[in-house]
Amino acid sequence: MHSHPERPRSGTQLLPMPENGQKVVLAAVSLQAHAFKAMMRYQIETLAFLRHRCEQDMKLADDLISGPDFNDAFEVVSTFLQNAASEYVTEAGKVATLTSRLASEAAGRARKEARTAIEDMAAKTVA
Question: Full-prediction pTM beyond 0.70?
Fold first, then answer.
């Protein structure tokens, strides 16, 4: 009553390489998960930096309000700008380091996936 398709006589599978297809899907999902995780690392770093800068902006306003003398205001603003420039440079270095580390991790995962795929193909060729 139920008819099942016969196996092709050539010895090949009915659906070509379902195991490899599953591995490709799993590799794609893994890639997306790692990309999402990397994006979240960038977001955390960026938001932490922006929070700090906003706190410094509020401190600038407080310092300007509390200092009645023009010379005090000039010193407050120049110190603020000097610190801000230094912090932006430091943050750029952190982002560059993070980018380098994430790229290195991605390359390592790609090498591992490629090695696994080659080993699987070699094992099937021998079998």
Answer: no
